[in-house]
Design brief:
CATH class of the domain at 11-213 and 305-314 in chain A: Alpha Beta
CATH architecture of the domain at 11-213 and 305-314 in chain A: 3-Layer(aba) Sandwich
Largest sheet of chain B: 7 strands, mixed
Helix content of chain B: 25-40%
Mean pLDDT of chain A: 96
Low-confidence stretches of chain B: 1-9
Number of strands of chain B: 25
CATH superfamily of the largest domain in chain B: Pyruvate-ferredoxin oxidoreductase, PFOR, domain III
Helix content of chain A: 25-40%
Radius of gyration of chain B: 27 Å
Order of helices and strands of chain A: HEEHEHHEHEHEHHEEEEHHEHHE
Mean pLDDT of chain B: 95
Distance between the termini of chain A: 53 Å
Shape of chain A: globular
Largest sheet of chain A: 8 strands, mixed
CATH architecture of the largest domain in chain B: 3-Layer(aba) Sandwich
Number of helices of chain B: 20
Strand content of chain A: 15-25%
Number of helices of chain A: 12
Strand content of chain B: 15-25%
Shape of chain B: globular
Distance between the termini of chain B: 35 Å
Number of domains of chain B: 4
Strand order of the largest sheet of chain B: 12-11-13-14-16-15-23
Oligomer: heterodimer
Structural class of chain B: alpha/beta
Strand order of the largest sheet of chain A: 2-1-3-4-6-5-11-7
CATH class of the largest domain in chain B: Alpha Beta
Chain lengths: 340, 634
């Protein structure tokens, strides 16, 4: 879009002068650093980059980026970002949100941004708790969660954010976690490069109100056996020596298997580009929570025209057909009469 | 309706009258709105002045033949300038018993009643709640009743088309239109052209409607049922080109104009809602103007997307009605904090809650004024007539852009769907409302480097710079958290918060310097009573004031377009009259505002019946007020 080469930048060029004010030890720090490390590698300009957030701990991130940014209102970031992305296709628009912001108060905007395939990169920090309001259960909290607002345990079934995004016709859906910077960076890069709406669930530790929520699967010593890395075109296997795998049970369900028992040829080969979302959806249902082997990586990455470019195409067609808008003719487009 | 007879015209007598009010009423499926629209266009082309009032149920197809399903269209045409659709019809066209029952109380003694007698069967009468046929008892003896078998005459006329009777029957509204077109000497060629275009895809419908229309016209001419037909001379008009326009169309065109005058792309984020949806429809048609319309997932997303577009440098607009306004309040507050231009268009309807979706009311003024948490002032502009919606849209955009603020633009259901002839403005004469984006740093940081501070203000307007993404060197963050004056970083500092609250209030109050002073319309200079109004009451108030003056009694009038801030001298003007009377379609919104702002003893004249004020009501209230003053201190 410009003749001048994008200047080389480093992480510090992308950091604003504002003091970062998350609780010490919060997972948000490593996510912020992954974002700031990635941006210099993307060949994009600071002035063309916009971070839009709603309300919550995650939503403070735009203040820490030396880009354009808006810290808006609870749940509405995808709607606000839609207006910006549709009118300014030249910009890179990121949405930073949390599980309360995007799955609860802003659930409607999230699913519609995904359905429309607006050119947005949506990072959803999932810590399964309300942090900024000091520890109430969230729509991703496990059933029975004891919090200040649920002293006898929460009663409602949580959302599975990856399943929700897939059900909302998302074209790009991925999951990563805050203890693996490299995986975050690569996942965010894929999300950014996707030509449409991309949704990334980031398992994020809230060390104050929900410490260790993902420890059972993201802890260094558990990862090999509890995280199932998804790689396009590869049989899905995990474990220190790739000894575990995912196979179909022949009834339309996926199950965990030992590769030695079933043979590698029985393993499901991951296909993130499959238009039919049922494989991606089945993968999203493998684990019932972050205490069982859980897939991470890109579940789905399919191409569909993004909403903004379809809008622009209609404008162009109208201008080609009717010529640019002429106000004087418009006012005279109905029946008119003249008095001298 | 005054008339004088012109003898010697064949075949019937022709009378010349100066005005008439006609109401077409039928079932929702009878096409009464189309009939009214066509009669309006015929009259506009003929050169009469006119004003219209559609009145339709909230249900799309309420059970046929019931009172709930009655749809009506009233039109007032005249040979002189008129302002309102008329207090009561002189002529009522009733297509079925329900339409008769729902409207007959409005027809004054001696009024003309044209009924489709074919529809008065036992079943239809029962559905309308008639125990006996009103055409057969004496209940309609006060009116001049014309019983016309419109259905059977329509069927007969459509025979050549081969259309099934059920289909052909649907053309009976065009029979009625033809009949009334003959009765009032309307030009008919344009309607025939319109039918041919409108139904071009189904030639049999073109044929049936055209035949029914001609049959109605010819029936009037040959049947000699009517004692006379009527002529209404064209009104005198200022020279110029005119078109007939509804408020919603004028408002949509005003937004397109504002976009061109501001040299900014228009973005509309909107959720369908009665009676505002037609603005979304109209703008969606004109993509060649570069307008992007988003039918959002909800009201909140509609305004959110408009605000996002404004951040990116577009003219962001959202359109809605009462329930939507409630939902948008939080985002309006965010826009106040962000200080970005944004238009919130509210086509007011009866409330609370779902209220009366298709009926008019002016009861959102105090919401627009105060309906946000915190100190969150928002300018308010209100349109006063259908065509004025065009100017009001441009003015609202001008304020929003210049002062970087959300602006409420208030219209209502009456303006939205009502129409009037509009003398088209010369596009070249419209104001330039363009503003400049920030392109350069405006401050120096601690290290002595050039910096951009988003809350450094223009000393005159107090507006902050509009620096849009894509501008190198001006990267900045804004948000709903309180900001430090100038530098614009997050600040929880108590004194700074008060400073910012005061600045935001002063910025909006300061817009008054930019508004024309109010001048009371008081031709004699002797008036003791001032009529103060806003919005769509303009028509009824102005007509009421004229009637009182005709009686030789002086009365003054002020009609406000700017409701926040008020024009700079409003208090002075109000205090110079002994009595201030405020007709409002609410319980006293403007009344409360002027009482609290200016300590004047303004009195409200309320009407909250979902329909505009009647001129007679306003006239009586003015006369009472004048009399009260005369009695207390002549």
């Amino acid at each position: 879009m410009t003749d001048v080469a994008v200047p080389t930048t480093s992480r510090k060029d992308w950091a604003s002068d504002q003091e970062v004010r998350w609780c010490p030890g919060c997972g948000d720090y490593t996510i912020l650093s992954a974002v700031q490390l990635l941006l210099p590698e993307l060949g994009v300009r600071r002035e063309n980059t916009v971070f839009i957030s709603g309300i919550g701990c995650a939503a403070r991130l735009p203040y820490y980026m030396n880009t354009y940014g808006m810290h808006s209102i609870h749940g509405r970031a995808p709607a606000i970002a839609t207006g910006l992305a549709v009118t300014r296709p030249d910009l890179d628009v990121w949405v930073v949100t949390g599980d309360g912001d995007s799955m609860s108060i802003g659930g409607n905007h999230l699913i519609h941004a995904l359905r429309r395939n607006v050119k947005l990169t949506i990072l959803m920090f999932n810590n399964q708790i309300y942090g900024l309001t000091k520890g109430q259960y969230s729509p991703t909290s496990e059933v029975g969660k004891i919090t200040k607002s649920t002293p006898f345990g929460s009663l409602d079934t949580p959302f599975n954010p990856v399943s929700l995004a897939l059900g909302a016709e998302a074209t790009f859906v991925a999951r990563t976690h805050d203890l693996d910077r490299k995986h975050m960076i690569e996942t965010f890069r894929r999300a950014h490069d996707h030509p449409g709406a991309s949704f990334v669930e980031v398992y994020q530790n809230c060390n104050v109100f929900n410490d260790g929520a993902f420890e059972a699967i993201t802890g260094k010593e558990h990862r090999a056996d509890m995280l199932i890395p998804l790689e396009h075109g590869q049989p899905i296997r995990f474990g220190a020596d790739g000894e575990h795998g995912v196979a179909s049970d022949g009834q339309g369900r996926l199950r965990l298997v030992e590769v030695a028992d079933v043979g590698e040829e029985k393993l499901v080969v991951h296909d993130e580009q499959r238009i039919n979302p049922s494989l991606a959806f089945s993968l999203s249902r493998l684990a019932t929570g972050p205490h069982e082997p859980t897939p991470i990586g890109v579940f789905r990455a399919v191409e569909r025209p993004d909403y903004g470019s379809l809008v622009d195409q209609q404008l162009l067609e109208a201008q080609t057909r009717k010529g640019p808008g002429d106000l004087s003719s418009l006012l005279r487009s109905g029946a008119t009469w003249t008095y001298d | 309706m005054t008339s004088k007879t012109k003898p010697g015209h064949e075949p019937g007598r022709v009378e010349t009258i100066d005005q008439v009010v006609i109401r077409f009423a039928g079932d929702s499926g009878d096409g009464m709105q189309v009939t009214g629209d066509r009669f309006t266009d015929e009259s506009a082309l003929f050169g009469n002045d006119l004003s219209t009032l559609p009145n339709y149920p909230a249900e799309i197809r309420a059970p046929a033949g019931t009172l709930a399903g009655v749809s009506a269209f009233q039109i007032h045409i005249s040979d002189h300038e008129i302002l309102t659709p008329g207090d009561a019809p002189n002529v009522l066209v009733a297509m079925n018993p329900a339409a008769l029952r729902a409207n007959i109380d409005d027809l004054p003694t001696g009024g003309t009643l044209v009924v489709n007698v074919d529809s008065f069967d036992e079943r239809a009468l029962a559905k309308a709640g008639y125990e006996t046929d009103p055409l057969k008892d004496s209940s309609l003896s006060a009116f001049r009743v014309y019983e016309i078998p419109m259905t059977s005459l329509t069927l007969e006329s459509c025979k050549p088309t081969g259309a099934k009777p059920r289909d052909a029957e649907r053309s009976k509204n065009f029979f009625a239109l033809g009949l009334l077109s003959w009765l009032y000497h309307r030009p008919i060629l344009d309607t025939e052209r319109w039918i041919a275009q409108r139904y071009a895809r189904t030639p049999i419908v073109v044929q049936a409607n055209t035949l029914a229309f001609r049959a109605g016209y010819n029936f009037g001419e040959t049947a000699e049922i009517f004692e006379s037909s009527y002529e209404i001379a064209p009104a005198e008009h200022l020279p110029g080109t005119y078109t007939n326009v509804t408020g919603n169309t004028a408002l949509a065109w005003g937004l397109l104009a504002a976009s061109q005058l501001a040299k900014l792309p228009l973005f509309l984020g909107s959720y369908p809602i009665t009676p505002a949806s037609d603005i979304l429809h109209e703008l969606s048609k004109h993509k060649n103007f570069g307008v992007r319309t988003l039918q959002a997932e909800d009201e909140i997303a509609g305004i959110g997307a408009a605000l996002g577009a404004a951040f990116g440098g577009a003219l962001g607009v959202t359109t809605t009605s009462g329930p939507g306004i409630d939902l948008k309040a939080e985002t309006v507050g965010l826009a106040v904090s962000l200080e970005l231009p944004l238009l919130i268009v509210d086509i007011q309807r009866g409330g609370p809650s779902t209220g009366l979706p298709t009926k008019t009311e002016q009861s959102d003024l105090l919401h627009a004024m105060f309906g946000r948490h915190g100190e969150a002032p928002v300018p308010i502009v209100a349109a006063k007539t259908p065509s004025h919606c065009f100017d009001a849209a441009i003015e609202a955009a001008r304020i929003a852009l210049k002062y970087r603020t959300p602006v409420y633009l208030l219209s209502d259901g009456y303006l939205a769907n009502g129409s009037e002839p509009w003398r088209l403005p010369d596009v070249e004469s419209l104001p330039d409302i363009s503003v400049e984006f920030a392109t350069e740093p405006n401050a120096t940081d601690a290290a002595g480097q050039p910096a951009f501070w988003p809350y450094v203000r223009d000393p005159e307007s107090l507006a902050r710079p509009w620096a849009i993404p894509g501008t190198p060197g001006l990267e900045h963050r804004i948000g709903g958290l309180e900001k430090q004056d100038g530098i614009g970083t997050v600040s929880y500092e108590p004194a700074n918060h008060e400073t910012m609250v005061q600045i935001r209030a002063a910025k909006i109050a300061g817009i008054a310097k930019d508004l024309p002073a109010v001048e009371a319309d008081d031709p004699s200079g002797n008036a003791r009573v001032l009529l103060l109004g806003w919005g769509s009451t303009y028509a009824a108030i102005t007509a009421g004031v004229k009637r009182v003056r005709k009686l030789g009694k002086p009365v003054a009038q002020v009609h406000l377009v700017h409701l926040n801030p008020f024009p700079p001298n409003l208090g002075e003007v109000l205090r110079s009259y002994e009595a201030v009377l405020v007709p409002e379609s609410n319980l006293g919104h403007l009344t409360r505002l002027v009482r609290s702002d200016f300590l004047v003893d303004a009195k409200v004249l309320s009407r909250v019946q979902g329909s505009p004020f009647r001129v007679g009501e306003v006239e009586q209230a003015i006369l009472q007020e004048i009399e009260r003053l005369e009695e207390s201190a002549p």
